[in-house]
Amino acid sequence: MLTIAPEVEVLARFGRALSDPIRCRLLLALRDAPAYPSDLADDIGVSRTRLSNHLACLRDCGLVVAVPDGRRTRYELADPRLGHALDDLRTAVVAVETDKTCVDAEARGCC
């Protein structure tokens, strides 16, 4: 059963998904068009096992859905508006200090 998550939970799920570069690449690939796991693995350059784990995370976050297609399963964004959100985030200007890295911020628990 699908339910609509509260706004803060949606943002937290989106943030968790975006916290990994492979998941970011997956979301960007699916923004362009639905795809099959084997094609995604080849395009992104990861093993199918690793890709499967990341797709499971994105499904658990509610950002992608698995669509049966005959004997195969195709993946696509759960909502087309997620593609627009990714475009907005991709082009957003982020204010960072040149001598700071996100890794340092992560160690302090703020990133």
What is this entry, summarized?
It contains 6 helices and 2 strands, in the order ααααββαα. The protein is mainly alpha-helical.
Which features does this protein show?
mainly alpha, 2 strands, 57% helix, Arc Repressor Mutant, subunit A, 111 residues, two-stranded antiparallel sheet
Q: What sort of overall outline do the alpha carbons produce when their principal axes are compared?
A: globular
Q: Helical element count?
A: 6
Report on the biggest sheet: 2 strands, antiparallel
Order of strands, widest sheet: 1-2
H/E element sequence: HHHHEEHH
The CATH homologous superfamily is named Winged helix-like DNA-binding domain superfamily/Winged helix DNA-binding domain
Give the DSSP E fraction (strand runs of 2 or more residues).
Answer: 5-15%
Can you tell me the residue ranges where pLDDT is under 50 for at least 5 consecutive residues?
none
Distance between the termini: 32 Å
Estimated structural class = mainly alpha
Q: Judging by the overall fold, what is the CATH architecture?
A: Orthogonal Bundle
Total domain units = 1
CATH topology: Arc Repressor Mutant, subunit A
What's the CATH class, please?
Mainly Alpha
- Mean pLDDT across the residues is 85
**Portion of residues in helices?**
55-70%
